[in-house]
Amino acid sequence: MKKIGIIGAMEEEVDQLKAKMTWVQVTTKASMEFNEGKLADRDVVVVRSGIGKVNAAICAQILVDDFGVDTIWNTGIAGSLKSEINIGDIVISTDALQHDMDATQFGYVRGQIPRMDTFSFPADETLIDLAVKCCGAVNPDIQVFRGRVVSGDQFVADAARKTDIVDTFAGYCTEMEGAAIAQAAYLNKIPYVVIRAISDKADNSATMDYPTFEKQAIRHTVNLVEEMVKTIA
Ligand code: ADE
Predict the structure, then answer these.
(1) Tens digit of pLDDT for each residue in 180-198?
(2) Is 155 near ligand 1, meaning CB less than 6 Å away?
């Protein structure tokens, strides 16, 4: 992998990665700032996409078309969908899908994008293994899980909605960009991985938890991404 595109959900996260880069050239496209440079001697492009699937997909396609990245990593925070996945823990995507895609009217199962040849978008095995290994090295105080990331244009903060998503999709965490980036990677035939630190439990306590745990989550994901860039073959 010669050039790594890193999409962060949060400004603070992108700023911390930028601060670790040796030189940075900033290009604005589609109102997003693409920060090109070197991180641990590797070519990277770090960008904050903005929130939601449309922003994320636009951002991913620009990374491929205009910056020539050959892999995309997405980091950020997410709501936990499993009782054993605690706030601060990390989920590495095995695959990603959109929980708000619904063409059941035409006989498709929920989540299936009509006329696409896959239900979910599998993440790259090598990147998953790398992320899990690096997480153990730099964040030994937390748990790391491999599992399905389910994305939608919804902040899930309601117990009934959470139960519905859990029962339907067997996801490990929910957020608002990962599956869009996964779909863009799939269509462009490049490897991707989603790395999410848990900020809340995606239930009635979610809006309360979110700001408190944001900082801790950023520390974990920034450490992890830096270690992955250092370690990748
Ligand atoms: N990002 C962090 N927590 C989330 C949640 N509960 N729902 C959607 N996106 C999130």
Answers:
(1) 999 999 999 999 999 999 9
(2) yes
- Residue-wise pLDDT for 34-70, tens only, equals 999 999 999 999 999 999 999 999 999 999 999 999 9
**For residue 187, how far is the Cα from the chain centroid?**
17
**Model-wide pTM > 0.85:** yes
Identified catalytic residue from 36, 124, 200, 209: 200
**How many beta carbons lie within 10 A of that of residue 130, not counting itself?**
20
Residue 138 has pLDDT above 80, yes or no: yes
Q: Is 125 left (phi over 0), alpha (psi -120 to 50) or beta?
A: alpha
Q: Is the CB of 176 under 6 A from ligand 1?
A: yes
| Position in ligand 1 atom list of the atom nearest CA 206 | 6
